[in-house]
Structure formats: structure tokens, C-alpha cells
């Protein structure tokens, strides 16, 4: 839910290649990696992997509340961000099965003043093909995200945001879609989104630690969230009236595993409805994505809200569920996911050294300035604060970088690497398998 740039967006689980490997699980190195992440202040949270509903590995590290020395435990509840969209999609399909609406139902039946409402369907909202602008992409979003908003206020924000493209002409992620789906659910049920969630999903699956969040209470095993700025710094709390079914749910790793088991086990919706959720068009399903792991394929969703980052994936063929929930991330979450999966499927788990490279404030001067690329439209301006290099991507928040080698800096939580050549004034930016050449203006 928190505004993230395209390039710096929360990394998904992406691997290429077809490789056979042993099936004997060994989580010893996975556990060692987590211990190292905790020691070097790279990750706080809970990870879990289960097969056929039986937990094979689970571990919690770091603090739910650093100020009060409350440690994360397996039962700690985290805000799960956009994993909430999977729950909302399930509720919509339940409504379809109950003949309360259909995939073809136009948005205009509920909210006719939304731009292009007569052309937008429930299906397009589910698959992010509506063209409705995402309110979380606005510059002023972080100025009000902690405030309570009424339905009318949120609808006005969405209406004022207008349309970014013609409905069904392409797919583009928009939190506005799932806020609208939340309100549609409330209208067809005559209940609040929280009450619908409780009745239709939480009670049938006996999820004891899942629901729409309220103000965080760390004394009740609810984690606060943090960003890393030399140490863990507590984040502000998004008000649940804003994200609704797009991101207002909190849960535990075990509850999310049980949700995935219930969903793919036919306890919530029909096999036909599940197949429709899993249909991928231009990278988007209906409330879920597909994440490949070598020759295997999982379905699920990632989430990001305030300082929380999360991922839920389910491998239908193997009946394996994987969950990562973090309330503090200073590393590439993709590497953690791979470490857990590699431990399960018998592949090598690597433990990095986390060695840092010392650089003086004077040495940073050779990297300062604005860099542009002919390959992508985003420019970077580099400034310094003491002995820390700061990257200022165009139109995006400032990012503190970590020196990892001579002339090399990283933003590890999203796998971004900056390699400078001071003699030529050039810089190479790498992320997500892409390499982009930059030159100082």
C-alpha cells in the first residue's frame, strides 16, 4: 500500500531455468541465515513453510516493539498489506457464487460517478484493468494516510483521481480497484467489510489471529513496523479506513498458511472460481500473481504497508505454502524467500558475510551530482550526509545507500546496486536482472 517506485518496488520471487534437485529438506542453513540477518539488523519478522498443512519450518526474529523490548514470536500479528487483496477476491467470488453479482457487473451499478464506471466491470477491478488511478500514487498520499477517512471521502479521492487508461486496454496495479470492491461487498451484504471477512473466511477456517487491524498494541502480540536508518526507526501507522480490502488486514504466518490451504483445498470457493482467480493476464490474476521457482509455480500475493513487507505463496502441485512477514526489512526479501524454498527443496542456501566497506565523507565527493540514462527515464541525483551517500531518484523518496565495495553502493532491501566509475563520470545501475548505464550531467 505504501507508495513505492516502479524500480524500487517490492521484489517478487523470480527465478529462471529448469533444474532438477534433491527433495530432502534441510533448514539448518536457513535458520543460520535468519540468525545472521537478525545480528546484522537486516530483517525482523516471521517466516514459515508448510506442506499439506503441516509446518516444516517456522522462525521469528527481531522485535515487535524495539522500545519496549518485545520480541517477535511465531504468533506475532503483522499488517499484511496487499495480501489482503486475496481475501477480498475470495469474498467477491463468494458473492458471484451466491448470485449477488457477476464478473460482468458494471461498476456503474454501485458508483456511477467514477470515471468510465459504465465501461468498468467487476472483472476489470479484480485484474487491475479498470484504468482507475491508484490514489496511493499521489504525491499527497503520505500526508493523510494515518487519518480516518469516510467512504464518501475515499470515493471522492478515487473519483478525483480520474482514469489513467481506457478500461481493459491494459493492466496497471491500482489500490483504488480493491477499495471499490470492498465497498461493493459492503453494499451486497449490508455489513461492514470487517464483519463480512469474519463471517465468510475467518470463522469457517478458524483463523484466530486475522482481521481488519486497528491501532497497533504490541502488548497483544501486534508488531510495530520499522525502516532502517542506521538503526530501526518506527514507522507511522496507516489508518484502516483508507486501504480497506486493498490492504487493511493483519494476520500471522500460520493463519496465512491456513488461509492458503483452505483456499486451494476448496473450503472457500469452488474449483471453477479458484481457476478464475489463478488465470494470469499480462502478469495479473484476479487477486493473485504467479511466482515461479525453477520448474515449479506458486500463486499468491506480496504486500507492503508502512514498514511491513509480506509474501504468501502456494505451490498447488507440491501443496507447499510459504509465508514471510516482516516489520523491518533492510535486505532483499527475494533472497530470504529463496533461502527458505532452497532449504525445503534440497538446494544450497548461501549465507552472505554482510561485510561493509568503509568510505570517508571526502571520498563521496567523486560520486555526487545528477546522472541520466538513455535507457530509462529515471534520473538519479547523489548527495551526501556525513559519510553516507544518498540517492535521489527523480520523483521518488530519498534513499540511503550502503557502501559494499570500492565505488559500489547498494540499497539491499530491493536489490539495487550502483557502481561508479569516477574517472569517466559514468555509473552502472543494476536491479532485478536489468543493467542500465548512466552518465553524470
From TrEMBL:
Domain (Beta-lactamase-related) ranges: 46-335
InterPro entries linked: AmpC-like (IPR050491), Beta-lactam-related (IPR001466), Beta-lactam/transpept-like (IPR012338)
Record Gene3D superfamilies: DD-peptidase/beta-lactamase superfamily
Transmembrane segments: none
GO cellular component: membrane
Keyword Membrane assigned: yes
Signal peptide: 1-22
Database matches in Pfam families: Beta-lactamase
UniProt keyword list: Membrane, Signal
Keyword Membrane: yes
Protein location: Membrane
Name recorded for this polypeptide: CubicO group peptidase, beta-lactamase class C family
Organism: Algoriphagus hitonicola
Amino acid at each position: 500500500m505504501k507508495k513505492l517506485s516502479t524500480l524500487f518496488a517490492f521484489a517478487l520471487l523470480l527465478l529462471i531455468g529448469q533444474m532438477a534437485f534433491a527433495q530432502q529438506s534441510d533448514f539448518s542453513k536457513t535458520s543460520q541465515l535468519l540468525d545472521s540477518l537478525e545480528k546484522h539488523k537486516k530483517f525482523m519478522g516471521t517466516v514459515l513453510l508448510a506442506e499439506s498443512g503441516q509446518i516444516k519450518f517456522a522462525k521469528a526474529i527481531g522485535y515487535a516493539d524495539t522500545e519496549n523490548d518485545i520480541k517477535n514470536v511465531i504468533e506475532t500479528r503483522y499488517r499484511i498489506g496487499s495480501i489482503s487483496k486475496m481475501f477480498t477476491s475470495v469474498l467477491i467470488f463468494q458473492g458471484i457464487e451466491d448470485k449477488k453479482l457477476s464478473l460482468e457487473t458494471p461498476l456503474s451499478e454501485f458508483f456511477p460517478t467514477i470515471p468510465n464506471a459504465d465501461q468498468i466491470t467487476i472483472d476489470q477491478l479484480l485484474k487491475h484493468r479498470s484504468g482507475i488511478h491508484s490514489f496511493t500514487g499521489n504525491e499527497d498520499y503520505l500526508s493523510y494516510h494515518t487519518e480516518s477517512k469516510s467512504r464518501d471521502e475515499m470515493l471522492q479521492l478515487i473519483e478525483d483521481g480520474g482514469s489513467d487508461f481506457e478500461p481493459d486496454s491494459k493492466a496497471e496495479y491500482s489500490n483504488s480497484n480493491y477499495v471499490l470492491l470492498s465497498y461493493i461487498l459492503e453494499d451486497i451484504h449490508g455489513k461492514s467489510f470487517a464483519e463480512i471477512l469474519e463471517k465468510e473466511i475467518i470463522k469457517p477456517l478458524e483463523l484466530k489471529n486475522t482481521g481488519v487491524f486497528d491501532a497497533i498494541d504490541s502488548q497483544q502480540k501486534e508488531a510495530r513496523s520499522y525502516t532502517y536508518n542506521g538503526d530501526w526507526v518506527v514507522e507511522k501507522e496507516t489508518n484502516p479506513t483508507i486501504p480497506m480490502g486493498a490492504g487493511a488486514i493483519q494476520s500471522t504466518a500460520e493463519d496465512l498458511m491456513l488461509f492458503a490451504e483452505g483456499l486451494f483445498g476448496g473450503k472457500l470457493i469452488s474449483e471453477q472460481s479458484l481457476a478464475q482467480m489463478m488465470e494470469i493476464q499480462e502478469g495479473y490474476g484476479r487477486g493473485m500473481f504467479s511466482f515461479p521457482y525453477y520448474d515449479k509455480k506458486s500463486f499468491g500475493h506480496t504486500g507492503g504497508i508502512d514498514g511491513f513487507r509480506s509474501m504468501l505463496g502456494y505451490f498447488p502441485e507440491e501443496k507447499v505454502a510459504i509465508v514471510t512477514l516482516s516489520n523491518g526489512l533492510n535486505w532483499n526479501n527475494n533472497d530470504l524467500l529463496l533461502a527458505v524454498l532452497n532449504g525445503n527443496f534440497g538446494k544450497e542456501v548461501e549465507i552472505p558475510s554482510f561485510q561493509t566497506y568503509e568510505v570517508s565523507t571526502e571520498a563521496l565527493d567523486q560520486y555526487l551530482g545528477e546522472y541520466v540514462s538513455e535507457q530509462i527515464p529515471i534520473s538519479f541525483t547523489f548527495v551526501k550526509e556525513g559519510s553516507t551517500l544518498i540517492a535521489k531518484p527523480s520523483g521518488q523518496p530519498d534513499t540511503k545507500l550502503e557502501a559494499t565495495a570500492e565505488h559500489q553502493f547498494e540499497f539491499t532491501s530491493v536489490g539495487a546496486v550502483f557502481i561508479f566509475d569516477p574517472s569517466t563520470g559514468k555509473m552502472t545501475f543494476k536491479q532485478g536482472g536489468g543493467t542500465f548505464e548512466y552518465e553524470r550531467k
